[in-house]
Amino acid sequence: MENKDFKESKKEDKKFKENLSLSKLKYSEKIIQVKRVTKVVKGGKKMTFRAVVIIGDTKNKVGVGIGRADDVNLAIDKAILNGKKNLITIPLTLSYSVPHVVKARYGACSVMLRPATEGTGVIAGGAMRTVLELGGVRNILAKQLGSDNLLNNAKATVLALTLLNEKIELGKYQSLRRQAFYDKIMRKYRNV
């Protein structure tokens, strides 16, 4: 009897978690490219579609997804799922900008992101603009150099944002260590 109650409660918990996870998955998505791709096989040419989608919650999460399928709608669905798996968090300042200048390269694409003051807006072009807007950045100066490939520029922007995140985490860790070091020194002088 108790075992059945336990199993029923577990099922209810599972349903609740599924509903909770479905409610969390509300992201804005923007299709930036749908391309027809052909592959030469033994019998001739096989044609498929590739979709590139940018997903974000317009607060501080963004991701780029790629999907390939025989049908355009299937390719877009796959790209959305892939984008949700590859979400990153952007460290934003109080003026919804990036904390410091960062540069990144992906393939032949090179991007540079610079912080901007309140009211500047998103000054960027192409796929970079979409990534930054869906990521919740409102004030930024950005420049893409080199190739104008949409996918590579989007990936380079995401790479720059992850580098930004790594530096922020490192800075937090370093400041904590410095604070602990100074506390130790101050205790030493207080005891003397």
Explain this structure:
The chain is of the alpha+beta class.
**The biggest beta sheet, please?**
4 strands, antiparallel
End-to-end separation in angstroms reads 69 Å
What spatial form do the alpha-carbon principal axes imply? elongated
Runs in which pLDDT lies below 50 for 5 or more consecutive residues are: none
The strand order across the widest sheet is 1-2-3-4
DSSP strand count: 8
Structural class: alpha+beta
| Tally of separate helices | 4
SSE pattern, N- to C-terminal: HEEEHEEEEHEH
Provide key terms for this protein.
alpha+beta; four-stranded mixed β-sheet
Write the layout of secondary structure elements.
Elements: H1 2-24, E1 28-41, E2 44-56, E3 61-69, H2 72-85, E4 88-89, E5 102-106, E6 109-115, E7 122-123, H3 127-134, E8 140-146, H4 150-191
Parallel strand pairs: 7-8
Antiparallel strand pairs: 1-2, 2-3, 3-4, 5-6, 6-8
Helix pairs in contact: 3-4
Condensed summary:
This protein has helices at 2-24, 72-85, 127-134, 150-191; strands spanning 28-41, 44-56, 61-69, 88-89, 102-106, 109-115, 122-123, 140-146. By secondary structure, it is of the alpha+beta class.
